[in-house]
Amino acid sequence: MITAWRVLRSGVSRQGSRALGLVVVLVVLGIAGHVAEAGQPTAQSAEQPDPQRLVGRWVRPDGGYVLDVREVRKDGSLKAAYFNPRPINVAKAEWRQKDGTLTVFVELRDVNYPGSTYTMQYDPASDRLKGAYFQAVEKQTFAIEFVRAR
Hints:
With 150 residues, this protein is α+β, with helices and mostly antiparallel strands. It is 28% helix and 44% strand. The chain is built from 3 helices and 9 strands. It has helices at residues 2-9, 11-39, 43-47, and strands at 56-59, 66-72, 78-83, 87-88, 90-98, 101-110, 113-123, 128-135, 140-148. The longest helix is centred in the first third of the chain and has 29 residues, at 11-39. 16% of the residues are buried.
């Protein structure tokens, strides 16, 4: 008994018990972190806007241009049409979701639209598409937004 007591009181024993205490604390923290994660959805998943919210007729208030999103596909593409006021060919329309942001990209290829693009983010609070329009003919970028047509 005295030998065991001396071992426990020695410096080696104290270092060992400190190490053991540290391991116990780390294990408890790790388990507590996993319990919290398992019990609640992550903030990111709770904030991800539904891509189906993009479906609809969107109007640019500064000129009456219309973006008609007809279908959101799982592969990240959109079935979309664009009007000014006549139809303009939509070469590419895509959506992406990253870090809680729903982004829309539309490329126009037609007469007077040789690769003009829209790059926008969906704002769920205001139900608007906000971003930039690159006008390919003039090589200029403009801040724009689309509002949902009622």
